[in-house]
Amino acid sequence: MTTDRRTAVPPGADLPDHPSFLWPNPDPAKSYDVVIVGGGGHGLATAYYLAKVHGITNVAVLDKGWLAGGNMARNTTIIRSNYLWDESSGIYEHSLKLWENLEAELDYPILFDQRGVLNLAHSLQDVRDSVRRVNANRLNGIDAEWVDADGVQELCPIVNVSPDVRYPVLGATYQPRAGIAKHDYVAWGYARAAAAMGVDLIQNCEVTGIDTVGGRVRGVRTTRGRVAAGKVALCAAGHSSVLAAMAGLRLPVQSHPLQALVSELLEPVHPTVVMSNAVHVYVSQAHKGELVMGAGIDSYNGYGQRGSFHIIERQMAAALELFPIFARAHLLRTWAGIVDVSPDASPIVGLTPIDGLYLNCGWGTGGFKATPGLGDCFAHTVAKDKPHQFNEPFTLERFTTGALVDEHGAAAVAH
Amino acid sequence: MTANFRLPVGGRVNRDEALRFSLDGRPMLGYRGDTLASALLANGVHQVATSIKYGRPRGIMAAGVEDASALVQIEEPFPEPMMSATTVELYDGLIARGLPGQGRLADRPDPARYDAKHVHCDVVVVGAGPAGLVAALTSARSGARVVLVDDQNQAGGALLGSDEYFDDLGSPAAWVHEVLAELRATPGVLVLERTTAFGAYDDGFLLALQRRTDHLGAAAPKDVARQRIWRIRAKQTVIATGAHERPVVFADNDRPGIMLAGAARTYLHRYGVLPGRRIVVFTTNDSAYTAAIELAETGVDVPMLLDARAVPPEGLVAECAARGIEVRAGHAVTGTEGREHITDVHIAPLAGTGHPDTIMCDTLLVSGGWNPVVHLFSQLRGALRYAPELGAFVPGEELPDVQVVGSAAGALDLASCVRQGGEAGRAASEAAGFTRPAPVPLPTSDARVAEAAAMVLWQVPEGAEPTADTRFVDLQRDATVSDVLRATGAGLRSLEHIKRYTTIGTAHDQGKTSGMIAAGIVAEALGVKIAEQRPTTFRPPYTSVPFAALAGRDRGELHDPVRITAMHSWHVAQGALFEDVGQWKRPWYYPRPGEDMADAVLRECRAARESVALMDGSTLGKIDVQGQDSGEFLDMLYTNMMSNLKVGRIRYGVMCGVDGMVIDDGTVIRLAEDRFLVTTTTGNAAKILEWMEEWLQTEWPHLRVFLTSVTEHWATVPLVGPRSRDVLASLAPELDVSNEAFGFMSWRDTVLDVTGGVAARVCRISFSGELAYEINVNAWHGRALWEALMAAGEPYGITPYGTETMHVLRAEKGYPIIGQDTDGTVTPQDLGMSWAVSKKKPDFIGKRSFARSENNRPDRKQLVGLLPANPATVLPEGAQIIESAHLPEPPVRMLGHVTSSYASAALDRGFALAVVRSGRDRIGETLYVPVADDVVPVTVTDSVLFDKEGTRRDG
Ligand SMILES: Cc1cc2nc3c(=O)[nH]c(=O)nc-3n(C[C@H](O)[C@H](O)[C@H](O)COP(=O)(O)OP(=O)(O)OC[C@H]3O[C@@H](n4cnc5c(N)ncnc54)[C@H](O)[C@@H]3O)c2cc1C
Predict the structure, then answer these.
(1) Which of A128, B96, B749, B796 is 20 to 30 A away from residue A370, measured at CA?
(2) Whether residue A268 is found in the same domain as residue A326
(3) Dihedral (CA of B824, B826, B829, B834) sign
């Protein structure tokens, strides 16, 4: 009755299969050595490195919804490490190095693809900032190049580099080792590996309170009961300030919607990743062939995972300025996540005034790329009760002392 | 030659207008009014494409947007990727290609135009089926402004696919026609055809895509926007979007010739097309009986109807019997045969008695019930409820100002649909303030109503799990029942996870037919109730929307407004090159024949330092600050004191963010006790106005201050150089230009001897260190002023200069440019401007931050000058600064970077500004700048390199 199904496989169909087993679905135990709040990429990676590097396996990752269903499931997966400041290059480059071996490490086909990222410059000041960042990157040992408009066209022939457009492309920074990966595969790879080492992944379990006694954390209250914990690590991205407030901490982060979108599957036209802040849009073409795009945050604050449509319209106009060839591609799906934006556009990772409570947030629009690096450093911070060298600069106190790591002022590049 | 499946009469196609088209190189004919799909079926063509993963032939399974398999690439008249053949209106010259997976983008520019329109109304009704039509008419009769949108080329909705007898009017078409005629004749009513509402947002905001000329193909007028985005803002929203029929999953359920039963009715009645000649029907509910009966009535062979229910509806069974259709109750399709086209169906009893059988056919119609189209409601975050009697999700809560009616709310018969439509129309217009009763008589029809309850069946149970599963859940993604079971076996429980694991619902159709079935199969596999599962969220857009339509007119020149000054045409005529600064076009430099940029800038600089030069400074942001608390307000915004500025005087001011970092600078002039004019940098004008407004409105609402942007009101010309006084004097007879009478940092109003007298405000400020005047006139007179200055300056060789020269001149004097020499991490103190930070004021924005430990570190980066060892060297801007003459292995400690760098005419050498750690303490030290493979030694100097004593300022 059934005939052979398979004939030629056209491009776009050949995503690797997921493994036949991912993770069990345990009920929460009464107590854990470490409870991680938030089962996004960061929470899962932290659990993985806690188990793998520090041998701490009596760990639960609690998520209020489905695992990795927050920003991890919604981001546009741009991975790069060409940030301006030494502090940033430290942690992002650490992360990029981990990405380069992650597929083998997790034994999961995460489709990490180092296709390079171009950040376009459209004004003389963009050029100055870009050159400055390239120079800083190189002195920090990060691969970075300044390419002129012709170079941009060579790397990505569909970019309109004509001088007659509204904001001509004057050149770009290029990081060849940058790229994209498949977000679900990454999250599930970490989840599966963590679960296999004994970490409990508990879904539909919203943390509603954080118990402290005498300045020390004792556990969390959840919609599935009380869970005692020696240490609690917050990885709640857009909801970080809500969680921190449960422990009486006020965070300098604002939650904003950030939208993204995809087109239908298209024949390969876009070999790299292009980002532009002046003509605000960034685009890559995913493995299956869909164009994946995003732009800036919606300006108002909120927790509804929805944005305003005019942001999408502006972004489309920007996309067609840069890529006229996209005119008749179709918007297939839009969505939004809630991003936690800090005043200096850099993350907050480290200890808190409460013993045993650790904070990881403020990654805003750009924390996917940090997933492995953050996981490693945050696990270290939790295990040793002291920051790893790469997250040491990203303290909460810096907003009091003024030791900011201001990434938007200088290069104005997010994601 | 292709077979002819078109009935001799019937349908809403225009048989007088034949249209040529082709699929995969095969030429065919259709009629005006066809879709590509109906025209293909009329030619006996079912297979449209092959599937993405397994390359299996795929055909037309539906008649609307829910179709999951008939994907085409349009090649002519202009390439457009991935369209569903069921939604492409046929036009002459259409050339299409079956699409196996990925669409193709055109390699030439899209010549079409796109635009957008806003419309505000009391009631928007989405869907012009019976429910929507009654709702719209009821609202319209009450006097409300109504917008009715529908995605088809004609109103009628489900009625387009039926031939029931309607009232005393006869056909449904006649009733639709009457309703539409009245709507169209009612003032304030807008009926939009070919318009798909694709996005629903908060507060009655609805987005719709109107396809205005697509159906005309190459004959589309070039000057009409091809597509239009409607941005509809309505007080009330009525969603009457109907329902999509749902298939049932069985082995080999994907062959061409397998179609939804309701779609077959649409092809029959709307297009006069038969889906086949020998048709088997498989259903779980009463609705498909009508298809069987109507097709049999046209003379088609309908040998058998399989009803999955053990007890079929008696009346309908009798009607079938009368037409020679055998009804087998309790039976299901277990498989099919055929390759490009179905040839046989395998059937078997679902339970109990009976035996498997095989029946020959060329078409299999399937109905597994109906899914209400709840997409827009769900986009609004309306909660959905599982309705077990329908096997589908329906709106599960009330949303303010939104109603869902008709089949979209789960109603199954005409009477309920039109009743709900009428009620919603009345409720909506009342809520919008129109209380005039305006009942619309509700139509009735002779359509068959359901006799028996539907059965919910997601898939036909299979004995053993097949090795190569062909029970397709999502045809477009080639995802099968086994894939779903693999996902649940992997430990996945959430539908969102399963969707991602299997990719079901992620294709072009976004799971319109597959999503519900997947949820059902998952629930069965996990042994849970569907009601306990959270359906995946519906997100905009409902159907795909071309990028170009969303970009609309905001492309090219219109992408972002180009702002030009009153003197722009003069600059263009002089051959100036321009720099984009924010939205402004600013002259960058004015090359003379044979000059390159470096030559031109050196010449312009020399003119300013040696004689006289002028530039167009009109783009500087200007904000008029009025009100009795203006002084207090400005004291809070600027780091220095402004309230004690005297009328007639000018002060330079610095603005910081709350973190104490410089965000802008400019001059503040006091016009009156209660009035100031402040200037901002060109690129920051809008941001600073917003910044001021935000503080004023959110933090200091008690202050009586009013802000107005007056940037464009003025044309501004800095007149610079030792001879500037002479030039000004010759044009300003009433003005005493002497240093004593008109001192530095003061301003005067006067009348210039320009075209019969032009009022001007002249400010004695300088951004170059030279004697300079900034002349402001009404923008209207800008060009006249400019030309008068050029004429008056002629004897002195007056020279226009651009932004580059301006940058060089100010850099020689160590004046920073905010945004170039600063980057949001630089304090006024870092710039050497402690003098501009008030010690007296109790508070101002940024003050608190100056006390932070980090702000008082001795190794902060400070603005200094750099002189390359070789005077001919001009360092690249953005170069980093290090301590050693040899580049060590990374990471290399960086001390700062070059922010500005130029060749200076006045210094006769290259020089730079830079921010350097402990920079002021390093003056005199040698540092190093890596440039490409070289390391360039530089000497650190004070940031002021020219005329340190300021001797030139007063002329
Ligand atoms: C549209 C978009 C595009 C992006 N593009 C990029 C990009 O291209 N490159 C890049 O590097 N980054 C990008 N980002 C940012 C990146 O996604 C985030 O910085 C990163 O995913 C955050 O870490 P996470 O994965 O742990 O967050 P999340 O996946 O959001 O995880 C947080 C989890 O916490 C859970 N949670 C919240 N509150 C509670 C509670 N009370 N109890 C229990 N659980 C709770 C949530 O359910 C969620 O699962 C993008 C983000 C968005 C939204």
Answers:
(1) A128
(2) yes
(3) negative
d(C-alpha B805, C-alpha B113), whole Å: 41
Pocket test for ligand 1, best of A71, A96, A184, A338 (most atoms within 8 A of CB): A71
Residue B363's H or E segment, with its range, is strand B363-367
Determine whether the shortest distance from the Cβ of A296 to ligand 1 is under 6 A.
Answer: no
What local confidence, expressed as pLDDT, does residue B1 receive? Answer: 39
Q: What angle do CA B277, B278, B280 make, to 5 degrees?
A: 135
Q: Give residue-wise pLDDT tens across range B136-158.
A: 999 999 999 999 999 999 999 99
The predicted model gives B29-36 an average pLDDT of: 98
Angle (CA) B318-B319-B324 rounded to 5° is: 90
Q: How far is the CA of A241 from the centre of ligand 1 (A)?
A: 13
| Token pair for B692 | 């001021």
Say whether B824 and A408 touch across the interface (CB within 8 A): yes
Whether A27 contacts chain B with CB within 8 A: no
Cβ of A317 within 8 Å of Cβ of B469? The answer is no
pLDDT at A413 over 50: no
**CATH code (residue A153):** 3.30.9.10
User: Is-above-0.90 flag for pTM?
Assistant: yes
Based on the fold, state whether residues A149 and A129 are members of the same structural domain: yes
- Of A78, A25, A35, A352, nearest in space to A195 by CA: A25
Which residues of chain B neighbour A5 with C-beta distances below 8 Å? 54, 56, 468, 470
Ligand 1 contact via A183 beta carbon (within 6 Å) = no
Average pLDDT of the residues in B523-547: 93
A188 pocket-lining for ligand 1 (C-beta < 6 Å): no
Q: Cis check for the bond before B100: say yes or no (omega within 30 of 0).
A: no
Q: Residues 6 or more apart from A76 whose CB is under 8 A from it?
A: A180, A260, A282, A284, A292, A293, A294, A368, A415
Cβ–ligand 1 distance for A41 under 6 Å, the answer yes
Q: Is A94 domain-assigned? A: no
Place of tokens 């470096």: B598
Chains A–B, number of C-beta pairs less than 8 Å apart: 288
The structural domain count of chain A equals: 2
Domain-embedded: residue A91: no
Interface test with A, best of B229, B399, B500 (most A CBs within 10 A): B500
Residue holding tokens 């069965």?
Answer: B524
Task: With CA atoms as reference, report the closest residue to B890 among A136, A360, A184, A69.
Answer: A136
Range of lowest pLDDT (A122-131, A383-392, B532-541, B715-724): B532-541
Contact A171 CB / ligand 1 (< 6 Å): no
The CATH number that applies at residue A350 is 3.50.50.60
Q: Is residue A63 lining ligand 1, measured as CB closer than 6 Å?
A: yes
CA distance B315 to B141: 40
Report the alpha-carbon distance of residue B236 to residue B142 in Å, rounded: 14
A10 to chain B, any CB pair closer than 8 A? The answer is yes
For residue B899, give the 3-state DSSP assignment. Answer: strand
**With contacts defined as CB-CB under 8 Å, which chain B residues touch A312?**
550
Nearest to B577 by CA among A148, A127, A124: A124
Distance A371 CA to ligand 1 centre (A): 10
Three-state SS at B488: helix
**pLDDT digit string, tens, across residues B688-733:** 999 999 999 999 999 999 999 999 999 999 999 999 999 999 999 9
For A123, the domain range is 114-177+254-341
Three-state secondary structure readout of B207-253: EEEEECCHHHHHHCCCCCCCEEEEEEEEEEEEECCCEEECCCECCCC
Determine contact: A18 vs chain B, CB below 8 A.
yes
Q: Is the peptide bond before B891 cis (omega within 30 degrees of 0)?
A: yes
Contact status, residue B568 vs residue B576, Cβ threshold 8 Å: no
